[in-house]
Amino acid sequence: MRNRNFWLLILALCSFTAAPVARAADATTGAVSRPALTVRTTTLREEKWARQLTANGSITPWQEAIISAQLVGLRIAEVKVSVGDFVQAGQVLVTLDNFVQGSNEAVQARVIAPDSGVISSATANVGSLSQPGAELFRLIRKARLEWRADLTAEELMLLKKGMTAQISIGEGRVIRGTVRAISPSVNAQTRYGYALVSLPNSTGIVAGAYARGTFDVSGGAKKLQSLPQSAVLQRGTKNYVLTLIANNRVHEQAVQIGQRVGDRIEIKQGLNANEAVIESGGAFLTEGDVVLVVKG
After folding, report:
1. Could you read off the pLDDT of 170-219 as tens digits, one per residue?
2. How far is C-alpha 256 from the chain's CA centre?
């Protein structure tokens, strides 16, 4: 009887210590195998893109003439034009009256447009006296506008006269322009220079308007590899993607990116052609997470 009770006690102790070990193992197995997220994967895709340089800037007059009276001390008798008017070269803008001393006779003089264009500013008022060098009007010569793109020194060195640019202005309007001039230096404070882009059709565009544009600096399309932009993540200055390694575990892989076109981004370095990359949702994952991969 004593022996039987001894063995029953030993069996009970074995059962008591074995059960928690088994549960811990189950918990550990479940934590390792349970997917953190359901994802789709993608791989690098070969593309042919033109290399583009993007810049911001403003619409400015090609040339702006300041118009003043040549005669001093004459009263402005009539102002014939206003802001926004298109004028022709030689057109009368202002008439001036000058009463000859000792006579009631008025000698009339005129201020004429030195070139064709659009009046952008008018300060001439009837009855006021003309002053030496005082501005009466500003004239945008030929009504011609251009885009002044702000660029760094490195970007300026990629441009050449005659290159094409696509300029987006206003609500969906895109104009194709040509690089007319490139500044030979940059501002010492801002570190920016500029490129002037001729606009063949500036009808309806307002000088001073903000515009964004792209330059084709590649001279044609080139082959490259790309991913969806949703697949590329950023932490500080580092760009990375999430690749899949053994047992569908996540691995952070640093990459070097290039230009963006639409929803695609160029991958210059850091990824092999057939490596599986998590297409989206990477912000919710970390190194070593296990994921469930679905197709389609």
Report:
1. 888 999 999 999 999 999 999 999 999 999 988 889 999 999 999 988 77
2. 20
